Amino acid sequence: MKTPKGLQDLIDEGVIDQVLRPLKSGKEASVYVVRSGEDIRCAKVYKDMAQRSFQARVQYQEGRKVRGSRQMRAMGKATKFGRKEAEAAWKNAEVDALYQLTAAGVRVPKPYGYFSGVLVMELVTDAEGYSAPRLGEVELSADTAREYHRFLMQQVARMLCVGLIHGDLSEYNVLVGPDGPVIIDLPQAVSASGNNNARTMLRRDVGNISISLSRFAPELLDTHYGEEMWALYELGELHPDSELTGHFEFDETIADVDSVMQSIIDAREEAIIRQQGREAAAQED
C-alpha cells in the first residue's frame, strides 16, 4: 500500500520497515499495522488539532504537567504558541501514560517509542493472530462477563494507584485478546490528584464498563466500584492488589445517587456518539 503521510520518516530512519495495512481511522488519529524487522506492530499517527473533534479537551488537560510557566500561560491564553504546546501535551499524554501503566502492571499495549508524532506500540491480536475485537463486539457468557468486569476494575484501580484515570473508558476502547481485556486509547488520561473532574471521570469510566458488561450479567449494574475506589484513594488505602467488593454506603445527605446513575448513562450516550463519529470518519477515509 502507499505509505501514509507521517510514516515515511519512520521508514527512512529505520524505525519501521513496511506499512502493511490501515487498522482504524478516527478523528483523533489513524492507526496502521506495520512491520519492524520480524515483528508486527501498530503505528498511531495523531491528527492535527484542527482535524480532531474530541470535545471539552480543557477539562482533561487540567492538572497535566507542562515544561514551564511560559508554556502554561500560553496554553491558558490559547495563543498560537500555546495551541502548539497544548497539541504536544495532548499527544505526549498517551505516550507517558502507556510507559507508566506498563511499568505498573496495567494491561495496555506495550509502547516501543514515539517518533515524529507517531506512537509505535504492540499490536493487540486475538488467538488466531487477527486484530483483536473491541469489548462491545464480542458475545460473552455471564461468567466471562463477571471475570472481565473484575479484571477491568482491578486495572482501573491500578491506574488510580499511580495517579491516572483513563477519562474515556468504555466498551469501545477495550480490546479482547487471548488473555482477556486490554485497555487502549489514553490521550485524554487525567491526573487523579490534579484534576477537579477526576472523581466524576473515574465514576463514569467504571459505570461505562459496568453498563456494557451488564448485558450478560445484569447484577453488575448494582455495583459501585468507582465510589469504593475513590473513597479508598482519598484515605490513602487503595493499593494495586486491594480486594474490591463493589459495595459502597452512600451518605444520602450529600450524595444524589440518581444523579450519579444519570451521569453514567449520559456518559455512555456520549461515548456512543463519539464512536459513531469515528466510524463515519473511517468510512470517509
Automatic annotation (TrEMBL):
CDD domains: RIO1_like. It holds the Pfam family RIO1. InterPro entries: Kinase-like_dom_sf, Prot_kin_PA4780, RIO-type_Ser/Thr_kinase, RIO_dom, RIO_kinase, RIO_kinase_CS. Residues 2-234 form the RIO kinase domain. Belongs to the protein kinase superfamily. RIO-type Ser/Thr kinase family. Its EC number is 2.7.11.1. NCBIfam families: prot_kin_PA4780 (NF041645). It comes from Rhodanobacter sp. IGA1.0. One of its GO terms (molecular function) is metal ion binding. It catalyses: L-threonyl-[protein] + ATP = O-phospho-L-threonyl-[protein] + ADP + H(+); L-seryl-[protein] + ATP = O-phospho-L-seryl-[protein] + ADP + H(+). It is an enzyme of class 2 (transferase). This is non-specific serine/threonine protein kinase. Keywords: ATP-binding, Kinase, Magnesium, Metal-binding, Nucleotide-binding, Serine/threonine-protein kinase, Transferase.
